[in-house]
Amino acid sequence: MRRVEVNGLVFGEGEMKICIPVCEKTLDAAVKEIREIKKTKAQMVEWRLDYFEDNIAESAKEIFAAAGHMPVLCTFRTKSEGGEKDIDLESYFSMYADLAECGAKMIDLELNICGAVEAYTMQFISYLHSLGVVVVMSHNNFEETPPREEIKQMYELMRLLNADLPKIAVMPKDQRDVMSLFTAMAEVSETCWPLIGISMGG
Questions:
Q1: How many CB atoms lie within 10 A of CB 69?
Q2: 137: part of which helix (H) or strand (E)?
Q3: DSSP codes, 58-127
Q4: What is the pLDDT of residue 1?
Q5: How far apart are CA 98 and CA 93, in angstroms?
Q6: Contact 112, 77 (CB under 8 A)
Q7: pLDDT (tens digit, 9 = 90+) per residue, 95-127?
Q8: Which of 146, 168, 193, 201 would give a disulfide with 150, using CB separation of 3.0 to 4.6 Å?
Q9: Global pTM?
Q10: Is there a contact between 70 and 44 (Cβ–Cβ < 8 Å)?
């Protein structure tokens, strides 16, 4: 199995990892929240950039310093995938480039955005990798669970785009939908691993 490691935290082996999102609007509130998270059993935090109202690039180093050895996943979730804001394509990639240069170790890129500019995405991910950044590529569907073959195709496209951690989160309507996700993950796991799969809801 392929291993992905960030600050000593290994994905692809051992127990499931616990990640807590930080959705604060200001730097001071975010730093305070991260310090509280470090007292828990969580292994990493997700900094939700779409909630953040202070300057992202100017705040990044202090956010990373507050987290210390705990990995920080930097995520701008667009409105179409359940986030708080929309963002134009140029600003999206520019923001992540700034974060990588500020020392970000993990960045989340949305498949729907990356799939529209595949050639550029591959160049951009190569650039991120040159700076030691681990790339999570995500797809979030809050309406349904797509068919198993469609889920597999999304995972495989994420891997072809050179994502390190493909992630799909879908909404199940029944038990069969949950099994569709798990079956798709099992069927692509030989060539596309480690994977993140979330069947959302109660």
A1: 9
A2: strand 134-141
A3: HHHHHHHHHHTTS-EEEE--BGGGT-SB---HHHHHHHHHHHHHTT-SEEEEEHHHHGGGHHHHHHHHHH
A4: 54
A5: 9
A6: no
A7: 999 999 999 999 999 999 999 999 999 999 999
A8: 146
A9: 0.94
A10: yes
With CA atoms as reference, report the closest residue to 6 among 109, 134, 124, 128.
134
d(CA 41, CA 97) in angstroms, rounded, equals 30
CA distances for 118 relative to 31, 73, 121, 155, 161, angstroms: 35, 22, 5, 14, 7
Cβ-contact 131, 105 below 8 angstroms: no
Residues 24 and 63: beta-carbon distance below 8 Å: no
Query: What are 4-7's contacts with CB under 8 Å, separation 24+?
Result: 4/134, 4/164, 4/165, 4/194, 6/44, 6/71, 6/105, 6/106, 6/134, 7/69, 7/70, 7/71, 7/105
Q: What is the DSSP letter of 38?
A: T
User: Which residues of the chain have a pLDDT value below 50?
Assistant: none
Q: Which tokens go with 109? A: 């890129």
Q: Which of 180, 121, 116, 171 is nearest to 152 (CA)?
A: 180
The pLDDT assigned to 12 comes to 86
Lookup result for tokens 């992630």: 167
In this structure, what token pair is assigned to residue 45?
């935090």
Contact 136, 164 (CB under 8 A): yes
Report the amino acid identity of residue 85. Answer: K
Structure tokens at 32: 């305070």
